[in-house]
């Protein structure tokens, strides 16, 4: 089946840029309204009008710049901070009594937006640099700063550094999470490939080895070569499951995680009875409910493949004369398929030994499939009394850790 790859971009800082954009617009309006209601107190109101006009045009024109880290360059940050500092230093020129009465500056709290942009872009060090310049400008503007002025300056300085530090911690956590998700996605994809290889190539190679050995002559040599390739391929598959992968990053868009996504299914639910009935035969008895057992197409195919892998194990280990029984049960919250045989059973410790040898029939073709579906696979075997495999798949789609999908 064709599969397509989807790129999921995660960025914990993107909401911060959106909040900063809204903050700049709102504080711009606040500074303008503050002047409108106190314009009678200004000795040179035209200075305030000129600056507020420039600040408003600059704020609206640069909204795309603060929409994300890519547009918020160091050159823009320097220009934006220059506008804020100019507004602070022009305040005594527009209002001579501003130094005396400790009133608000022309840009008012709009200045904090420039400092926050430094914090989000570069972390606490950039925030400390920008807030220090703003603090110096406020002290110079006041001439003889009051206690309230020093308190406000210190508050902005501490808050901006704290926000910058939080952004740095969030970025580090984001990279860690992205890498964990990438490793999990890569591991699940390798397990899926291992199951497909086990269900097709490895079984064909094993069959060629057995038939070639039985026929003898040149066919025996072909069987020997097939056996060597089977061992090499099992080693490769088992070794590939322990490797890790790399996660790429993009500072402007956050960490990147690649997901492999199945194409949309438009055929509707599949009747599991039809998928399992093909396994019925002279030595395989299939018992089913009278009504259709409907599952989504992908889980239904995976469950049927797990049943096929269980029957392959019966034929391979219990012998061609062994009998098997398939029981399909339809419950309100889950579907249960039980595969039972009358073979000699599995010796204790044999499954762990087989997995160590790269034989992943139970580990991947059965348990791995059910784990990906959010279900479970339980194997009960008593030497001399056969083996029973119980496969459970929840009705509500669940993730590999058993959590209900959103």
TrEMBL record:
Pfam family for this entry, one: HATPase_c
Keywords, comma-separated and alphabetical: Kinase, Membrane, Transferase, Transmembrane, Transmembrane helix, Two-component regulatory system
Record-annotated membrane-spanning stretches: 21-39, 45-64, 76-94, 114-137, 149-167
Residue stretches making up the DUF5931 domain: 5-178
Residue span(s) of domain Histidine kinase/HSP90-like ATPase: 302-395
Segments forming domain Signal transduction histidine kinase subgroup 3 dimerisation and phosphoacceptor: 189-239
The keyword Thylakoid is annotated on this UniProt entry: no
Coiled coil (residue ranges): none
NCBIfam families linked to this entry: HK_morpho_MacS (NF047322)
PANTHER family hit by this protein: NITRATE/NITRITE SENSOR PROTEIN NARX-RELATED (PTHR24421), OXYGEN SENSOR HISTIDINE KINASE NREB (PTHR24421:SF61)
Protein name in the entry: DUF5931 domain-containing protein
Organism: Streptomyces lavendulocolor
Taxon lineage: Bacteria, Bacillati, Actinomycetota, Actinomycetes, Kitasatosporales
């Amino acid at each position: 089946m064709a599969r397509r790859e989807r790129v999921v971009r995660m960025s914990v800082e993107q909401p911060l840029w959106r909040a900063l954009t809204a903050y700049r617009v709102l504080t711009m309006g606040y500074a303008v309204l503050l002047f409108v209601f106190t314009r009678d107190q200004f000795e040179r109101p035209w200075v305030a009008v000129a600056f507020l006009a420039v600040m408003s045009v600059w704020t609206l024109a640069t909204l795309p710049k603060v929409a994300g880290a890519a547009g918020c360059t160091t050159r823009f940050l320097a220009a934006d901070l220059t506008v804020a500092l100019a507004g602070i230093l022009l305040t005594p020129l527009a209002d001579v009594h501003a130094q005396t009465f400790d009133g608000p500056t022309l840009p008012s709290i709009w200045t904090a937006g420039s400092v926050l942009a430094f914090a989000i872009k570069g972390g606490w060090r950039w925030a400390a640099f920008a807030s220090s310049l703003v603090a110096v400008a406020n002290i110079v503007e006041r001439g003889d700063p009051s206690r309230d002025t020093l308190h406000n300056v210190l508050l902005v300085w501490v808050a901006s550094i704290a926000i910058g530090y939080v952004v740095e911690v969030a970025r580090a956590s984001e990279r860690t999470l992205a890498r964990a998700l990438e490793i999990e996605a890569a591991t699940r994809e390798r397990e899926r490939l291992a199951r497909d290889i086990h269900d097709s190539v490895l079984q064909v190679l094993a069959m060629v080895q057995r038939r070639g050995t039985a026929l003898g002559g040149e066919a025996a040599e072909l069987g020997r070569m097939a056996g060597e390739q089977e061992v090499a391929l099992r080693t490769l598959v088992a070794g590939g499951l322990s490797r890790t992968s790399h996660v790429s990053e993009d500072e402007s868009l956050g960490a990147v995680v690649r997901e492999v996504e199945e194409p949309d299914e438009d055929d509707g639910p599949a009747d599991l009875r039809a998928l399992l009935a093909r396994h019925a035969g002279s030595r395989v008895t299939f018992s089913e409910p009278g009504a259709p057992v409907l599952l989504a197409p992908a889980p239904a195919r995976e469950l049927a493949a797990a049943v096929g892998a269980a029957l392959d194990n019966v034929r391979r280990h219990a012998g061609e004369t062994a009998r098997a029984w398939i029981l399909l049960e339809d419950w309100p919250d889950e579907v249960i398929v039980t595969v039972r045989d009358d073979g000699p059973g599995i010796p204790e410790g044999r499954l762990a030994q087989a997995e160590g040898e790269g034989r992943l029939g139970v580990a991947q073709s059965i348990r791995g499939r059910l784990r990906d579906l959010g279900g479970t696979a339980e194997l009960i075997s008593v030497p001399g009394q056969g083996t029973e495999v119980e496969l459970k798949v929840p009705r509500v789609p669940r993730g590999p850790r058993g959590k209900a999908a959103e």
